[in-house]
Design a protein that fits this description.
70% of the residues lie in helices and 5% in strands. The longest helix has 39 residues. Helix 4 packs parallel to helix 14, helix 6 packs across helix 9 and helix 27 runs antiparallel to helix 28. By secondary structure, it is mainly alpha-helical.
Length: 627
């Protein structure tokens, strides 16, 4: 027990330090956990390599993760996505597995081991890819949506893979006894055993099948008919912690039941999650279990990192890095052709190919499970753990390569189509015709004013033309294009570009060369607002600010304020926010996080108190009028 607590405390301390650093560097929490495990294990030797007890405990995080994945996947939503899940995702897993299995067999491994290796390496890193796509704003692109579909398919595929792996066992896997009964584990090698918690030990095959079907049917029926009354009973107690206790009981109980019938606990947890996806208590269970899932899953990755044979890497670093690159190349080739078959082109195709080419965290899970089943030899498993970790460490480099390719493809595309000859002038120039620029253009044109639309995205320009809106192809940041669009005589420039860096660049150039023009700029976030403020923009609109403000007004109306009172509160907040931006811009230091700027924090707190005072005064005026 003392050893267990010592290891747990060391792991948690390492996670607290390493994971935030990895997140700040944009590497993702998974790599942070792996790095923490490597540092406290192989590098500094703070824990020994005997981490099985803690790893068994941490593996429960995988079960929780699959339960939560199931909660998010309503059967109806899964059915609506069936074509992408079975087509795009299914083909990626199939061909990646076959390619990697072929490479393993070529290296002299048996087909059972090769198939297990192919399955483990065919899955990509959900944690790294989704986080990176979100950070780069690529989730809603064609390549981002395709990547999400494949990742979702891979998450679901883990369940049947876990159920299938025992069939590949070469040593301690399921065996049929002389009497036709199922025997498992080391007991199978000795003709059966006693003392096991398994209900199916020593039973004939037909009985095992009936018990398994009965257990699955029980999970489905219990999820439909028992959970709602249980949650209502807990709700009546008004004890918040009882929700957490019940959610944990559901996952632990289902895992134990599946263990009794000889199936994967993860399979039962996922199935229960899908059944409960339509429950009104779904979000309650998600919020209760998420902290446990994240912590236990993090501990699992730390134990994986601590258990990595660092001496093995130092003994043959070139071979291991070469294997990691081989995995990336094989998966990338499959992804390229599968994406092309499903209509992905250019930037979307490269994002899909490079973003998913690494092996992922589920590979750790499958390798650990395969080693327990004696499907994969321990020595090979250690090498493959290093290969997966290396491929994940290479992932940020793959996204940098994508950024370079994307920029080059954009420039080549613009070069392929010569900039249009601009034969129209107007008082308003709109640079960028995405969703933001389109709404601005529609409002201004509908009010009877001419606009000149500029964008370097050929597809966007062609789309606007199909709807009868005249627009011009060209890079709005190029001075000659702005001159041709009549920037010298225009009254207003609306900068609605997707790229924050180009937005600042354009505002700086126009303000420096055309000081009389009024510049209205789209900002990504508050820090981008400060950059645009210093660049010389007159009016700055944050992407989500106005819609969030309107949503807040609706909330006030529904909690008791009249429409007029809610509108007053909204206007007060809006005016105060404009003042706040101007005030905080004086204290903002480029490149320095706001949390590390004492003057900024002090002024922000003062302004927040001013806002509370202003809103309280409104409430007092309301009370005085009503009295």
């Amino acid at each position: 027990m003392d050893t267990f607590l010592y290891q747990a405390s060391i792991y948690l301390a390492a996670a607290v330090i390493a994971v935030p650093i990895a997140a700040r560097l944009g590497l993702g929490s998974v790599l942070g956990y792996l790095a923490a495990g490597i540092l406290i294990g192989p590098v500094f030797g703070l824990v020994g390599t005997e981490t099985q007890d803690l790893q068994h405990f941490a593996e429960f995080g995988v079960v929780m993760m699959l339960f939560l994945i199931g909660l998010e996947l309503e059967p109806r939503a899964l059915w609506a996505m069936r074509h992408k899940l079975l087509g795009l995702g299914g083909l990626q897993i199939l061909f990646s597995t076959l390619a990697l299995m072929g490479a393993a067999m070529a290296a002299g491994q048996p087909w059972q081991v090769s198939l297990a290796v192919g399955l483990a390496l065919s899955l990509s890193s959900t944690a790294i890819v989704l986080q990176t796509l979100s950070e780069k704003g690529l989730m809603q692109t064609g390549g981002g949506r395709a990547s999400f579909s494949v990742l979702l398919t891979q998450d679901i595929a883990v369940i049947p893979i876990l159920a299938f792996l025992p069939l590949l066992a070469t040593g301690y896997g399921p065996r049929i006894g002389n009497d036709g009964s199922i025997q498992r584990g080391e007991d199978a090698a000795h003709g059966g055993g006693h003392g096991s918690l398994s209900l199916v030990e020593g039973m004939p095959g037909w009985a095992v099948t009936l018990i398994t079907i009965g257990a699955i049917a029980f999970i489905i029926l219990a999820g439909i008919y028992l959970t709602r009354p249980l949650f209502r009973f807990i709700h009546a107690s008004n004890l918040r912690e009882m929700y957490t206790a019940l959610a944990l009981l559901i996952v632990v109980g289902i895992s134990f039941l599946m263990t009794l019938v000889g199936l994967s606990p993860a399979l039962g947890a996922f199935l229960a999650g899908v059944v409960l996806a339509n429950s009104e208590f779904r979000h309650e269970m998600e919020s209760d279990l998420n902290p446990f899932k994240g912590l236990l899953l993090g501990l699992f990755f730390i134990t994986v990192g601590a258990g990595i044979n660092y001496r093995l890497f130092l003994a043959s670093p070139g071979d291991l890095i070469g294997l990691a690159l081989l995995v990336i190349a094989a998966k990338g080739l499959v992804l390229f052709f599968v994406g092309r078959a499903f209509g992905l082109r250019r930037r979307a195709q490269w994002l899909f190919t490079l973003g998913l080419a690494q092996a992922g965290e589920f590979g750790f899970v499958l390798l650990a499970f395969s080693q327990q089943l004696n499907v994969i030899p321990p020595a090979l498993s250690e090498k493959l753990l290093l290969v997966i970790a290396l491929s994940m460490l290479i992932t940020p480099l793959l996204f940098i390569i994508y950024d370079l390719l994307s920029k080059r493809l954009t420039e080549a595309r613009t070069a392929d189509h010569e900039p249009d000859e601009i034969d129209e002038k107007g008082p308003v120039i709109i640079a960028g015709i995405g969703r933001f620029g389109q709404i601005v253009n529609r409002l201004v044109r509908a009010s009877g004013f001419k606009t000149v639309l500029l964008d370097n995205d050929m597809e966007a320009v062609q789309l606007m033309r199909r709807f009868g809106v005249k627009s011009f192809l060209g890079d709005p940041t190029r001075p000659e294009l702005l001159k041709a669009a009549g920037i010298a005589k225009a009254r207003i420039l609306v900068v609605a570009l997707d790229d924050p860096e180009n937005t600042v660049k354009l505002v700086e150039y126009v303000r420096r060369n055309y000081p009389d023009i009024h510049i209205i700029a789209r900002a990504y976030d508050r820090h981008h607002v400060f950059e645009l403020f210093q660049a010389g923009a007159d009016d700055i609109v944050r992407e989500m600010f106005d819609s969030s403000l309107r949503a807040g007004r609706y909330v006030l109306e529904k909690v008791g304020l009249s429409e007029y009172e809610a509108a007053q509160a909204e206007q007060t907040f809006y005016a105060h926010d404009r003042l706040t931006i101007r005030e905080l811009a004086k204290h903002w230091i480029p490149g320095t996080p706001a949390s590390e700027n004492p003057a900024y924090i002090k002024r922000a707190r003062e302004l927040e108190k001013d806002l509370e005072t202003a809103l309280l005064e409104l409430a007092e005026q309301k009370d005085q009028k009503s009295s």
